[in-house]
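Milestone 3.1: sequence recovery, worked example.
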């Protein structure tokens, strides 16, 4: 089986009409490994169509599923004759730039790496201090959010007051609980009566 090198693939991108049957079959491995590599899929299709291969229809269905523009794919595949090398077959009037133009315009990775390193070095060497535009007044807001006694009053706390012989606090606690839970008001009234009787005995 024919191996497709990077150089061969780049030539096929620029001149897809020069593809051989072996190359189009070899492209199947690239497509299998990288299913979203649309350019490889299109070049494979061009080769399969050129040699009337039985895999053409099946490959066309799969490529149309992975394609971002079926209009472009249709225009490429419905050409009666693959155009000459001067015409860019992978470009379309609907797209601003073809893949080939994009490849030519893009910088090599090594150049990008150097620019990126110099950008990072410049940032690290520069004096980068964050200066606050506004001085914020640090105010203690905790006093504004003090809960009232009625909010945290419970039966347990009322019982604790009673056991500690803090009778006034216990009476106040049961009065608050009576307002909070009107369905238990008779129970709390009995507790208040009991506490008042204890006060008389003291």
């Amino acid at each position: 089986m024919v191996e497709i090198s990077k150089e061969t693939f780049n030539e096929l991108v620029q001149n897809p009409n020069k593809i051989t049957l072996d190359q189009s079959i070899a492209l199947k491995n690239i497509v299998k490994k990288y299913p979203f590599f649309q350019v490889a899929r299109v070049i494979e299709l061009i080769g399969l169509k050129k040699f009337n291969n039985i895999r053409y229809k099946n490959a066309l269905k799969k490529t149309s599923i992975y394609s971002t523009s079926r209009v472009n794919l249709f225009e490429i595949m419905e050409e009666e004759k693959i155009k000459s090398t001067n015409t860019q077959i992978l470009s379309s009037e609907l797209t601003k730039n073809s893949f080939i133009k994009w490849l030519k315009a893009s910088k090599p990775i090594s150049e990008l790496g150097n620019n990126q390193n110099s950008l990072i070095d410049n940032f690290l060497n520069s004096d980068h201090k964050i200066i606050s535009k506004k001085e914020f007044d640090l105010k203690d807001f905790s006093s504004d959010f003090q809960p009232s006694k009625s909010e945290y009053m419970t039966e347990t706390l009322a019982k604790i007051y009673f056991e500690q012989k803090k009778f006034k606090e216990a009476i106040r606690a049961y009065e608050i609980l009576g307002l909070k839970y009107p369905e238990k008001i008779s129970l709390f009234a009995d507790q208040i009566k009991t506490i008042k009787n204890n006060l008389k005995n003291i």
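Residues 147-201 form one domain. Residues 106 and 112 are 10 Å apart (CA to CA).
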